[in-house]
Amino acid sequence: MTIDEMRELDRRAVLATVDVVALAGPADLDRPTPCSDWTLGDLLAHMTAQHHGFAAAARGEGADLDAWKTHPLGDDPAKTYTKAAEAVLAAFADEGAAERGFALPELAGDLAFPAEQAMSFHFIDYVVHGWDVARALGLPYGIAPDLVDAARPIALAVPDNDYRLRPGAAFAPALPPSGEATALDEILRALGRSPAWPVRPAT
After folding, report:
1. Closest C-alpha among 41, 203, 45 to residue 136
2. At what angle do helices 77-93 and 115-137 cross, to 10 degrees?
3. Which of 150, 142, 100, 145 has its CA nearest to residue 124?
């Protein structure tokens, strides 16, 4: 996959999250989510912060931990989220981003990742977090099948290690595969989500 292809996949996945986040109102922010211990407000604050962090990384500024800090969403969480999404998409689209190493201190300390790989991390996060938001709102997740197909091998390659046990980790330990799972189900289970949430995960 070329970096332009990955950038486009990520763009579409992020825009899909913008669409579903736009359906959330202030009264929804206390809803539980598939992310353990996070309300919808917590999840949206995390998603917003990660957009800003990845945007900084694309500019060569990702080593600055302040770029990754979570901030209050304000009076219009959907608008705040949309602005963050626009910022990261603009940063990824910049011609220089493809040539830079992306510092992602939450993942690897001082190491920098090639742009395409870093964008793939962002892509899989937002494929799954879009589902998280939709489930929290009790809505169907209308993600395009080709995005699911592209996300599946990335999800299956995410290490299932002790990092997932850390407080605030985006992904919980993987759930065992299910014999009749769809491709999206496989992604969710590989990244610690029960496709049937809020039903208790099968083990």
Report:
1. 41
2. 160
3. 150
pLDDT, tens digit, 9 for 90 and up, residues 118-176: 999 999 999 999 999 999 999 999 899 999 999 999 999 998 888 777 776 778 899 99
Could you tell me the pTM of the whole model? 0.93
Which of 18, 30, 54 is CA-nearest to residue 136? 30
Q: What residue has token string 């992020």?
A: 14
Six token digits for residue 177? 């595969």
C-alpha–C-alpha distance, residues 131 and 60, integer Å = 30
H-only helix segments in 31-114:
40-58, 77-93, 105-108
Selection from 136, 135, 141, 106 nearest residue 121 by Cα:
106
Helices (H) and strands (E) in the chain, counts: 7, 2
Residue 104 contacts residue 65 (beta carbons within 8 Å): no
